[in-house]
Amino acid sequence: MQKQIIVLIGGPGTGKSTLINELVARGYCCYPEISRQVTLEAQQRGIDQLFLEQPLLFSEMLLEGRIKQFQDAGQEPDDVVFIDRGIPDVVAYMDYIGDDYPEHFTKACEEFKYTKTFILPPWEEIYECDTERYENFEQALTIQKHLVETYKKYGYDLIEVPKDTVENRILYILDKI
């Protein structure tokens, strides 16, 4: 079997991390969303929302981390590696806020390609705000639109994961790979 590096994408609060956690529990190799870690580290330095206050710095840190995740995933002994959010997410979020970004952002999207991309749709019933998630549900819908546009721009076929139980969502994903 050829190595598959699979990315789960979707706006905030669509259930990505829940699915990643369940995949880990089932023994799959998974890489978590790194933006929470970047945000928490900034908060410890006194910056409440690094993405809002210094979006380019935040995005540079995310891009670097996501490239490393992609490269590390390629070295894993497992045939299948799941990643919570991908490199094009960085561009989608910068487009969402309307900020410019350096050319190496787009070059990274072109160079590092995921095998499959599963997108989780906005789901208001499970949506929650917390200390790292500042967006309201309406903003999450707009972010979702940017994610779809960005991934399609880089040639990805998006596989939409239906709104369902965690178990059924996992089975759907595993059936598609």
Features:
5-stranded parallel sheet; 53% helix; 177 residues; alpha/beta
Polypeptide structure, described:
With 177 residues, the chain is of the alpha/beta class. The protein is 53% helix and 12% strand. It has 8 helices and 5 strands, in the order E-H-E-H-H-H-E-H-H-E-H-E-H. A 5-stranded parallel β-sheet has the order 2-3-1-4-5, with helices on both faces.
What is the spatial order of strands in the main beta sheet? 2-3-1-4-5
Q: What sort of overall outline do the alpha carbons produce when their principal axes are compared?
A: globular
**Radius of gyration from the CA trace?**
15 Å
Largest sheet: 5 strands, parallel
Percent of residues in beta strands: 5-15%
Whole-number average pLDDT? 90
- Overall structural class, as computed from helix and strand content, comes to alpha/beta
**Roughly how many Å apart are the termini?**
11 Å
Task: Give me a quick take on this structure.
The protein is of the alpha/beta class and 177 residues long. It has eight helices and five strands, in the order βαβαααβααβαβα.
Strand-helix topology:
Elements: E1 4-9, H1 16-25, E2 29-31, H2 35-44, H3 50-53, H4 55-75, E3 80-84, H5 87-97, H6 103-111, E4 116-119, H7 137-153, E5 158-160, H8 166-176
Parallel strand pairs: 1-3, 1-4, 2-3, 4-5
Helix pairs in contact: 1-8, 4-5, 5-6, 5-7
Domain NadR/Ttd14 AAA: 6-169
Protein name: ATP-binding protein
GO molecular function: ATP binding
